[in-house]
Amino acid sequence: MATKIKMDVEEVLGKSGMFTNYIAYGRASYKITVDLHLANPSMPKHQVVVRSKKPSRSVPSDDPIHAIEDEPPMVDPGPESAVVRLERDREITSPNATRIESGMPIEVQTHVDGKLVTRQIRYDASEVPPQPPPVDRDNSDKLAQEWKVRKA
After folding, report:
1. Same domain, yes or no, for 69 and 126?
2. What is the mean pLDDT of the chain?
3. Is it the case that residue 50 has pLDDT exceeding 70?
4. I need a labelling partner for 96 at 20 to 30 A (CA). Which of 26, 73, 109, 114 fits?
5. Is residue 42 located within the same domain as residue 76?
């Protein structure tokens, strides 16, 4: 599932336009939140939050990563600051179908001559029912109002 989440994050970031190589900014902070609601009685809900933090002093000062600041919102962001909030919801009705649809192999373990053997099997995506498509939302307006800055 982590691979599919990474693929979704990359796709959402790619769609935003804020991560093209011609966009420049002197300061930045970010937060990425992954909320999981699982059909697992021992852990039905789980949240992972990744927040920006200032880079180590060992990073060369001309590295663009020095634009990253501690977690948002930034302190005294200035009149030119702007925000983006992109959200994606995805329902996974079959983890294996999602793996196949995404081009990932299915790991199968079998016993051969008394030894446990793990194999990676790839299936044709056309052989599985399609999964529900993700639902994307741009909630930049709401975040801009909360933080009293403009929407990018």
Report:
1. no
2. 88
3. yes
4. 114
5. yes
* Residue 74 and residue 21 in one domain: yes
Which amino acid is residue 136, in one-letter code? Answer: D
Query: Is the domain of 24 the same as that of 82?
Result: yes
Tokens 């789980």, located at residue = 46
Residues 91, 95, 100: CA angle, nearest 5 degrees: 110
Which residue matches tokens 């179908």? 97
Domain extent at residue 103: 91-131
**How many alpha carbons lie under 13 Å from residue 95 in its C-beta half-sphere?**
8
- For 95-148, the pLDDT digits (tens) are 899 999 989 999 999 999 999 999 999 999 998 988 899 999 999 999 999 998
Structurally, the chain folds into a number of domains equal to: 2
Contacts of 86 (CB under 8 A, 6+ apart): 12, 13, 15, 16, 136, 137, 138, 139, 140
| Cβ atoms within 10 Å, residue 81 | 19
